[in-house]
Write a structure and sequence with these properties.
By secondary structure, the protein is mostly beta strands. The chain is built from no helices and 34 strands. It starts with a strand and ends with a strand.
């Protein structure tokens, strides 16, 4: 787990990096400072790509400094000197860094437009504008690289806010690059006020898809909503289910949600395949000042909630770590900033997702054909099956001599639970 800290006061903000100790609930005492001067440094983002022979660490930090974006790269044990990615009189804001196999991708906002660049080798590509031409009402971008079957690929997907020329009417837009060009921009959410989109972390080996969340006041209060899609490499994402509330059983306003999905813990078969499958989430709850941080783990047998009250002080910038596998389970960290000491400092809470060791664990997003019922039957029987992702389904009945008797299904089906009644 990596987290940032910064000095105070705000007019002299430096960027630092701290880490958790391996498989531990403790933090390192060492702060790795990215900057140490009197300039204003803000909006840090960190990512770690796949290691290579020449870059076993392959870590990068980006941030905004005097209106431009800077970065430091750590291929091995030493941080390289600070370098500028952008330069010019127009301020750059809200950089978001994401790993791309062994490289990195970066999105940011400039004068209401969304820009994108990639780090391959030792240099950045020329920035391109990915928001619509002439549209200057965009902000808060996030980035994820999509592959297939849970593998991170080379297809960048970007989501951001579109302000619709009114502060109280935001939409969430989604854009993906195909094999050779950017595909049409997709409006994911437009009803009500929708803000702060973020990609759900889907750990390797879990459901082969993409999760996107955002804050929405469509229900009269701020709630976290989300949608699940299936990536089609080089093509548009197929959105599988209508968007819905992710944390409906928790009250109050919800902000800054960060979610993760893994497939190493118990899942509940009675849940519909259309559920938004997450196992761990952290978010801010309460009023606009968000006086509580909540951490939820969908562990067996009961959910665990860690509510960290603000004691009259403000929390902000809550985020969820990637998973760390330990002997007792999978550990996640919730990290946030708090100003209770008069300075903004980092705080963290940890939770362990307990693995199910008593029963075999079926994967929630796999194909399964059930036994027909009743059996024997006369003259009807019901055949049920479950699809984890959209697929061509062919379901046929044969007699004891191997001759085809009937075709029950022969078409593409979306993910879900299906039952077919056959009248013999």
């Amino acid at each position: 787990m990596l987290a940032f800290t910064r000095t105070s006061p705000a007019e002299m903000a430096n960027i630092g990096l701290v880490k958790t100790l391996p498989a531990s609930a403790s933090w390192s005492d060492t702060i790795e400072w990215m900057t140490s001067d009197s300039a204003v440094n803000d909006y840090p983002s960190v990512a770690q790509a796949c290691p290579t022979a020449n870059a076993p660490e392959n870590m990068m930090v980006v941030w905004v400094r005097a209106g431009n974006i800077y970065y430091r790269y750590r291929p091995d044990t030493v941080w390289e000197p600070m370098q500028a990615i952008t330069s010019g009189p127009t301020p750059d804001e809200f950089p978001y860094l994401a790993p791309r196999d062994t490289g990195f991708g970066l999105v940011w906002e400039r004068a209401g437009q969304i820009l994108f660049s990639e780090f391959t080798g030792q240099s950045w590509t020329m920035p391109v504008v990915v928001s619509a031409g002439g549209d200057s009402a965009n902000g808060a971008p996030c980035l994820e690289y999509l592959g297939y079957c849970g593998l991170r690929g080379f297809y960048p997907a970007i989501a951001w806010e579109h302000r619709n020329n009114a502060d109280s009417a935001h939409a969430v837009l989604f854009h993906i690059r195909g094999d050779s060009t950017w595909l049409p921009i997709d409006t994911v959410a437009s009803t009500g006020d929708n803000r702060r989109p973020g990609f759900e972390t889907i750990e390797p080996g879990a459901y082969p898809g993409i999760g996107l969340t955002w804050e929405s006041n469509i229900s009269g209060r701020w709630r976290i909503r989300g949608i699940v899609g299936e990536p089609n490499p080089g093509q548009a994402v197929t959105w599988l289910f209508p968007d819905g509330e992710i944390l409906p059983s928790f009250g109050g306003n919800q902000h800054d949600a960060s979610l993760a999905l893994i497939d190493v813990i118990t899942w509940h078969a009675q849940k519909s395949a259309a559920s938004f499958w997450f196992t761990t989430a952290t978010w801010l709850a309460g009023g606009d000042t968000a006086d509580t941080v909540q951490l939820f783990t969908n562990s067996y047998p009961l959910p665990e909630i860690a509510a960290i009250p603000g004691s009259g002080f403000q929390h902000r910038d809550v985020t969820l770590s990637s998973m760390v596998v330990t002997q007792s389970g999978v550990r996640y960290w919730s990290v946030w900033a708090n100003n209770q000491s008069g300075q903004w400092k980092l705080y963290g809470a940890t939770a362990v997702v307990i693995m199910d060791v008593d029963t075999p664990m079926p994967r929630p997003f796999s194909f399964r054909l059930e036994q027909n019922y009743p059996n024997p039957f006369n003259p009807t029987t019901k055949v049920s099956f479950v699809l984890g992702h959209s697929s061509l389904v062919s379901l046929k009945v044969y007699d004891v001599l191997g001759r085809e008797v009937a075709t029950l299904v022969d078409e593409v089906k979306a993910p879900g639970n299906y039952s077919i009644v056959w009248d013999a």
